[in-house]
């Protein structure tokens, strides 16, 4: 599939290896993607506050300080206009993520470790199938 549309993704994870993996997978799938990273929930909120024109947010749920759940809630409250989809990243059980994530405004879930095929499906679902 050829993706022509430019995309911006906010990737939030406190682990630099995970940030590198996310960036590598997305850029391999879509070399023109712009990926902004944040290490904490607080930082993700501040980045979104300054520039909310992201096509997708990938949010680790286990972050120092403000959790990914809380950061997602706060980001959803900042949204003006087109809502930005938030996809949670976690090694936890899917049932736990869904029960806590939906009320926090999380739109979907990806289990860690992040894999190219599941990442591609998320990009298609939330960015390219619109």
What would you note in describing this structure?
Pfam families: Response_reg. One of its GO terms (biological process) is phosphorelay signal transduction system. One of its GO terms (molecular function) is kinase activity. This is Two-component system sensor histidine kinase/response regulator hybrid. By secondary structure, this protein is α/β, with parallel strands linked by helices. The protein has a 5-stranded parallel beta sheet, sandwiched between helices. It has one domain: Rossmann fold (3-Layer(aba) Sandwich), CATH 3.40.50. It has helices at 16-29, 41-50, 68-78, 94-101, 116-128, and strands at 8-12, 34-38, 56-60, 86-90, 108-111. Helix 2 (41-50) packs parallel to helix 3. It is built from 5 helices and 5 strands. The model has no long low-confidence stretch (mean pLDDT 89). Helices cover 43% and strands 18% of the residues.
Biggest beta sheet summary: 5 strands, parallel
Strand content: 15-25%
Q: Per the principal axes of the C-alpha atoms, what is the gross shape?
A: globular
* Second CATH tier, the architecture: 3-Layer(aba) Sandwich
State the distance separating the first and last CA atoms.
15 Å
User: Which structural class should the secondary elements be placed in?
Assistant: alpha/beta
- The side-by-side strand order for the widest beta sheet comes to 2-1-3-4-5
Number of helices: 5
Q: Approximately how much helix is present in the residues?
A: 40-55%
């Amino acid at each position: 599939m050829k993706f022509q549309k430019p995309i911006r993704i906010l990737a939030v994870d406190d682990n630099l290896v995970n940030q590198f993996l996310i960036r590598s997978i997305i850029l391999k799938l879509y070399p023109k993607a712009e990926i902004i990273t944040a290490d904490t929930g607080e930082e993700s909120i501040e980045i979104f506050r300054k520039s909310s024109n992201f096509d997708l947010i990938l949010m680790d749920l286990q972050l120092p300080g403000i959790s990914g759940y809380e950061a997602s809630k706060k980001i959803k409250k900042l949204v003006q206009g087109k809502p930005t989809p938030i996809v949670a990243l976690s090694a936890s059980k899917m049932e736990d993520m869904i029960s806590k994530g939906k009320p926090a405004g999380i739109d979907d879930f990806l289990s860690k470790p992040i894999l190219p095929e599941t990442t591609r499906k998320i990009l298609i679902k939330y960015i390219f199938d619109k």
